[in-house]
């Protein structure tokens, strides 16, 4: 190993820190164009010719607020390391992972609707149609499975399976 992984490898941390798969569930690009434009239009309606500094106040407040909401909505990251699946702040050790199934948009809708299990762990973004179902093999955990949105569901499922095989599970 070279570079920054050398000291980490000495302590056995290099395998767990570097993801083999990474994805950010950001909002679609057109939202970044449409939402601030809509906020600017709304700001123009709000000020309606007010004199002085009140003219720019709606723009200064609304446009950054909308940009902040878009950033916050798309902040979720999905990663697979050699030892765990990371979804936002949640961590699932791969030793507890059972079957991994990539889901189409229709399958995802069914699994989150009529086929939903109340104890399932779900990280779903409405602008991402496909997802991955990760069944759990942990007798101490009442959670039957995780459902995680992913634009590249097949790649995510393959990465989880590959990391599981690599970790000896």
TrEMBL record:
<keyword id="KW-0812">Transmembrane</keyword>
<keyword id="KW-1133">Transmembrane helix</keyword>
<dbReference type="InterPro" id="IPR021443">
    <property type="entry name" value="DUF3093"/>
</dbReference>
<protein>
    <recommendedName>
        <fullName>DUF3093 domain-containing protein</fullName>
    </recommendedName>
</protein>
<feature type="transmembrane region" description="Helical">
    <location>
        <begin position="29"/>
        <end position="49"/>
    </location>
</feature>
<feature type="transmembrane region" description="Helical">
    <location>
        <begin position="56"/>
        <end position="74"/>
    </location>
</feature>
<dbReference type="Pfam" id="PF11292">
    <property type="entry name" value="DUF3093"/>
</dbReference>
<keyword id="KW-0472">Membrane</keyword>
């Amino acid at each position: 190993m070279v570079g920054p992984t050398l000291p980490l490898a000495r302590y056995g941390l290099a395998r767990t820190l570097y993801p083999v798969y990474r994805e950010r569930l950001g909002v679609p690009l057109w939202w970044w164009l449409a939402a601030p434009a809509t906020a600017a239009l709304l700001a123009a309606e709000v000020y309606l010719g007010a004199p002085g500094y009140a003219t720019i106040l709606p723009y200064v407040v609304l446009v950054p607020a909308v940009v902040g909401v878009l950033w916050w909505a798309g902040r979720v990251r999905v990663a697979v390391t050699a030892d765990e699946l990371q979804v936002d702040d949640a961590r699932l050790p791969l030793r507890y992972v059972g079957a991994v199934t990539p889901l189409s948009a229709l399958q995802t809708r069914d699994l989150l609707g009529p086929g939903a299990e109340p104890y399932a762990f779900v990280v779903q973004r409405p602008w991402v149609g496909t997802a991955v179902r990760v069944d759990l093999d942990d007798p101490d955990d009442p959670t039957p499975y995780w459902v995680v949105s992913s634009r590249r569901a097949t790649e995510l499922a393959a990465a989880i399976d590959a990391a599981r095989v690599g970790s000896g599970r």
